[in-house]
What we know:
The chain is mostly helical and 264 residues long.
Amino acid sequence: MVNITEMACYNKRQRQTGPEQVNDHIVAPLHSRVNGWSFPLHSFQLLTLLLYSYLAIVSFGIYIPLLPNEWRRVAYVVIGIVFVHHLITHLIAVTIDPADENILAKKNYDKPMPLFDRSKFKHVIQNQHCYLCEVDVGPKTKHCSTCNKCIADFDHHCNWLNNCVGSRNYWFFFNAVVSATVGILLLILMMLYVFIQYFVDPAQLRTSPQFESVRGNATWLVFLPLAPVETTAVAILALATLSVVLGSASFLLVGHLLAFHLYL
Length: 264
């Protein structure tokens, strides 16, 4: 279901980029892309938004309301803050134009970009001058062939954001990754608790006042307290299992990404 001053992890080592990998002509979009909302949208970007929406719905609509009273309030606050923080930083990282400052000052994104001819120049950027963007750039700037423009302090092109990550949006990207890792871990622990507690003491999951009007223990309620909907324990446990599997896979992905950027 990453882009949010200086932090110690950013300064461990200067982020380096490899040499340009280009053929005689760079295969790039005709026009430079502005940010992560520029078309075409990437399938990974859409998958991220769908997963975020799914986890938010099942967490706040199903599993947090099943927690004991004293835990429920804490979960609403803590998980709510993490989810909002991630959404804001993610959207900012997508929206920011990470281009080099000279590109931002002089670039017209409506103007078609020329093709790079290696017979004339060995590299796209040479002596801190980009022969495609036709501007002088910073020492750690790299021309991204996907965005077709020079990115300030280029880190990588992120398909999950559908945008490049550079100095202008790295802080937001890093915070989005951190909040995603923390949030997914909290959701996994919460759903595991609900799953286990059902077999140990299911009464602890039925402390909401709305359960007092339900006859028998076979009927369960979701989307409490505003819009109670009756369901079964099997549905709740099956959805918890699916959510833990999806959450675990996501946690491995974002956790690996977080560890990588902490190492840099």
